[in-house]
Amino acid sequence: MNPRIFLNALSFGILMTASVSAQESLDGLINRDMESLLAIYKMLHAAPELSHHEEKTSVFVAGQLRSLGYTVTEHVGKYERPEWTGYGVVAVLKNGEGPTVLVRSELDALPVEEKTGLPYASQVKTKSDTGQDVSVMHACGHDIHITSLIGTAQMLVQLKKQWHGTLVLIGQPAEETIDGAKAMLKDELYTRFSKPDYAIALHDHAELEAGKIGYCPGYALANSTAVDITIRGIGGHGSKPETAKDPIVIAAQVILALQTIVSRENSPLDPAVVTVGSIHGGTKSNIIPDEVKLQLTVRAYKEEVRQKILASIERIAKNIAFAAGVPEERAPIMKVSDTEVTPATYNDPDLTQRLAKVFEKTFDAKNVVKWPPIMGSEDFGRLGLDGHQIPVCMFWLGAVDPVQMAKSQQTGTPLPSLHSSLFAPLPEPTIRTGVKAMTSAVLELMKN
Ligand SMILES: [Zn+2]
Ligand SMILES: [Zn+2]
Question: What global pTM score does this model have?
Answer without folding.
Answer: 0.86
